[in-house]
Amino acid sequence: MVDLYFDDIIKVDRVDADGKKFDKVSRIEAQSEEDDMQVLLDVNTEIYPVHAGQKFRMALAPTLNLDGTTVTSYFPEGGHKSLADKFEYVMHGLLYKISEDTSGPNAKVMVYVSYGGLQMMLKGDPSKMGKFKVDQRLFLLLRKV
């Protein structure tokens, strides 16, 4: 069984709040419903359009293999059942930074992942961030709800 590091419904609050910087990419700002996490995520909107107000199931996992084993090669579509079969948009990246924000009344941890130049920042309660480690490979999975 795959151990998901994050699995929640997110609602997109804003798209390209600072203006559109790239033709095919938008930065979304979203909030998770259950875990009260803030998400900043770059999405290739040419292949996966995203709009404010939409809801998505978002998951972060260390592997796509349903048995939890490490992904060691690429499987052609339909050739092997994987966690990706349950989602519409999948990216693979590297967690490159973890930092802490102690400016408010409650401390928050921020996790930063680069998906081939598309960035993600996940900010939330430190108790929910214990599985994340720097230099960890992670899959991001999205599906419209």
From TrEMBL:
**Entry GO CC:** RNA polymerase I complex; RNA polymerase II, core complex; RNA polymerase III complex
Task: Note the InterPro entries from the entry.
Answer: NA-bd_OB-fold, RPABC3
Q: Which Gene3D superfamilies match?
A: Nucleic acid-binding proteins (2.40.50.140)
GO biological process per UniProt: DNA-templated transcription
| Pfam families in UniProt | RNA_pol_Rpb8 (PF03870)
Q: Which UniProt keywords apply?
A: DNA-directed RNA polymerase, Nucleus, Transcription
Any one Gene Ontology MF annotation carried by this entry is: DNA-directed RNA polymerase activity
* Taxonomy, superkingdom: Eukaryota
Q: Which family does it belong to?
A: Belongs to the eukaryotic RPB8 RNA polymerase subunit family.
* Protein's UniProt name: Putative DNA-directed RNA polymerases II, IV and V subunit 8B-like
Organism for this UniProt entry: Davidia involucrata
Q: Which taxonomic lineage is given here?
A: Eukaryota, Viridiplantae, Streptophyta, Embryophyta, Tracheophyta
